[in-house]
Structures are given as structure tokens and as C-alpha cells.
Amino acid sequence: IDIIVLSEFAQVSYYAYEQRKILNLANHGVLKILEMGKKAVDVLAPSNRIYLKQQKVILSALKKMKNLD
Length: 69
Fold this sequence. Notes:
Number of strands: 0
Order of helices and strands: HHH
Number of helices: 3
């Protein structure tokens, strides 16, 4: 497992969520990116507790995006 790549991808997925209006991203696209980011952080969190906060943040963002649709 490439921990660095998974971690960076999770961070980028959350960045896309935070900056979706400035970047002019469609909600459905951001939702897909967050779902992939969640998969990445779900792989990381069990082996390293440092990713638990990131996991919670992405999960919260996912819930907010799902409520928009």
C-alpha cells in the first residue's frame, strides 16, 4: 500500500469539497471524489490512528453533500 498517495488523495478529495464553489465543481462530481477519498482513508485508518480525524472529516463532508441532493 502506498500510504503517501492514499493520504494525499484523501486530502485532495476534501480540498475539492471545501473549494467546490471556487473551482466551479458540480455537486455530483464532488460527491464521487469524496467517496473515493473515503475509500482511501478507510484503508489508512485501521493501521494508523493519525488518519481517524481525516476519516471523520471526510465522512461528515460526504453526509453534507448527500443532503444537498
